[in-house]
Amino acid sequence: MNESFKTKNTQMRVRSLFSTLSDKERLMAEFILEHPEKIIHGTINEIAEELNLADSTVFRFCKKLGYKGFQDLKISLATESVNEMKDVHEKVSKSDDEKTILEKVFCSNIKTLQDTLEVIDDKDFSRAVDTILHAGKIELFGFGGSNVIAMDGYHKFIRTGLTVSAQSDSHMQLISASQLKEGDVAILISHTGHSKDILEILETVKDQQVTTICITGFTQSPLSQGSDISLYTLSEETDFRSEALASRIAQLSILDALYVNVMASLDDKGQASLQHVRKAIQKKRL
Question: pTM for this structure?
Fold first, then answer.
């Protein structure tokens, strides 16, 4: 767990770790998300009894979240803001009209971006920008919905004048990964960080001493643990909108921010490359 993550609020920590939790830990996680007031006003014995868990299980879960113990968790929950845009977390219901759903989706996206901005480690982000700037080659990888994000990243970074690539086909991604070498950078995108395909790419490029940057939603995933630099997104799952879908706007925004930083650092060289692109695509317009 990175240092920036430890400074964030309890619900952010719980949601980010959720996919890695055991069944008993998930009981505790769901209880914190749904009934924080019971944690604040209860004792460890009361919470353990209500959830049919051992006191030691509750205590270990508090430690897993980065707290010293149950009391530390209580204090954290009690001091966190109670005015956290509760309407943002309202779930879409079948009775909602089109305008209400529109507003809830937009509010959810705004909240996703705000929460993601909170959990991104400034030093890791700066390292990612510097690594991209000095890369021999940049390649973006992602499968399924994450491939859409990877291709969007390619669409951005090709304008920089840097050597950048991305593939859509899973076999081509693996072949392309096998050709990267030390000094190159692989940007790996996966919401869960548990995809077999992305972990296969990670293993391939790590064997070749390629620097890895991952964009993922889970701090304890194999992808984040195995990457050199991890940039995290944070989103909330709802009945009609999966967490993976909500996280994509944050993934796109992280790539946007990386691209803008790189272009700013390239200065005149970057602007010259951008002008070449604009001149070329101008021919496609009437």
Answer: 0.74
